[in-house]
Design goal:
This protein has 5 helices and 3 strands, in the order ααβαβαβα. With 99 residues, it is of the alpha/beta class. It has a domain of 68 residues. Helix 3 links the parallel strand 1 and strand 2.
Length: 99
């Protein structure tokens, strides 16, 4: 039992509400959500896109590298970007993370 309590305490100490506050503030401010991912996560993001559309949010998701480039090029300060990647996989995602 002591080990479980220790694990819970350690996790509680790692949880910071400020980044969650900043993310929710950015989400409320955005007019459009852009979703970027690679093939393995398309299903997850399609579901996320559907749920956001159900509440009246404009959501766009590109399903290939070319569409991602076009979507990024047409983005502006009204857009909020979500990137779902496993260790930065995906050609365009890796390029955007490079200095």
């Amino acid at each position: 039992m002591k080990e479980y309590q220790s694990t819970l305490t350690d996790q509680k100490n790692l949880f910071d509400l400020y980044p969650l506050y900043k993310a929710s503030k950015a989400m409320r401010k955005a007019k459009v959500f852009d979703l970027y991912t690679s093939a393995g996560n398309l299903g997850f993001f399609k579901n996320f896109q559907f749920q956001l559309q159900e509440i009246g949010t404009d959501v766009y998701m590109a399903e290939n590298d070319y569409e991602q480039i076009l979507m990024a090029a047409s983005s502006n300060q009204d857009h909020l970007t979500f990137v779902l990647s496993m260790e930065g996989r995906g050609m365009n995602i890796q390029k955007s993370l490079m200095p």
